């Protein structure tokens, strides 16, 4: 292979991203973090979304009151989830998405990890022991923006977001933000992205 072609091939290989992670988003029925009523996910393999989706559920018993503020935010009501499985019944599907060894990413991860842990506690379960990262924290370190909500970060990075506070759309948006952030700083893994953001 001519030298010029070898250089071009190496440059192409260097542009390949090997980002593997799962982005998540939760919605809750009321201020209690354990009152989960929706989950969305987007699994990323080799820097591309390989699987995505969302589901609704009935919050755990005793935590199933839908607060007016929460309903205004996400539009989910008790009526909408009345025929859905309970959160406990959704746990096997949740673990199928998260108990893969992949790191977890979320926008405002403190909220989503809190929801995950507190909801699982109502079932006597704990979350998979995988690392988690926050696209909101990364964005704060890497950019100077008026605010760091998911829609504003998406707008800054040119990421198209679907319906904000629809769990599946928000998970996809968070995944795309992470991918775009990695491209922006020139790294190829979640760990490298986190390290690069911490250096800023």
UniProtKB/TrEMBL annotation:
<dbReference type="InterPro" id="IPR012337">
    <property type="entry name" value="RNaseH-like_sf"/>
</dbReference>
<dbReference type="Pfam" id="PF00929">
    <property type="entry name" value="RNase_T"/>
</dbReference>
<dbReference type="GO" id="GO:0003887">
    <property type="term" value="F:DNA-directed DNA polymerase activity"/>
</dbReference>
<keyword id="KW-0548">Nucleotidyltransferase</keyword>
<dbReference type="InterPro" id="IPR013520">
    <property type="entry name" value="Ribonucl_H"/>
</dbReference>
<dbReference type="InterPro" id="IPR036397">
    <property type="entry name" value="RNaseH_sf"/>
</dbReference>
<keyword id="KW-0808">Transferase</keyword>
<feature type="domain" description="Exonuclease">
    <location>
        <begin position="20"/>
        <end position="187"/>
    </location>
</feature>
<protein>
    <submittedName>
        <fullName>DNA polymerase-3 subunit epsilon</fullName>
        <ecNumber>2.7.7.7</ecNumber>
    </submittedName>
</protein>
């Amino acid at each position: 292979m001519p030298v010029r072609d070898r250089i071009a091939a190496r440059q192409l290989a260097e542009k390949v991203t090997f980002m593997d992670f799962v982005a998540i988003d939760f919605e809750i029925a009321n201020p209690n973090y354990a009152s989960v009523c929706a989950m969305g996910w987007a699994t990323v393999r080799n820097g591309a979304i390989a699987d995505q989706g969302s589901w609704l559920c009935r919050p755990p018993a005793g935590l199933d009151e839908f607060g007016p503020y929460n309903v205004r935010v996400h539009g989910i009501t008790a009526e909408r989830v009345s025929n859905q499985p309970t959160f406990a019944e959704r746990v096997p599907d949740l673990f199928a998405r998260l108990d893969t060894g992949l790191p977890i990413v979320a926008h405002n991860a403190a909220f989503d990890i809190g929801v995950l842990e507190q909801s699982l506690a109502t079932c006597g379960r704990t979350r998979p022991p995988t690392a988690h990262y926050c696209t909101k924290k990364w964005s704060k370190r890497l950019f100077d923006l008026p605010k760091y909500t998911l829609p504003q970060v998406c707008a800054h990075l040119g990421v198209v977001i679907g319906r904000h506070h629809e769990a599946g759309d928000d998970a996809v948006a968070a995944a795309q933000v992470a991918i775009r952030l990695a491209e922006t700083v020139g790294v190829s893994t979640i760990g490298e992205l986190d390290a690069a953001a911490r250096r800023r």
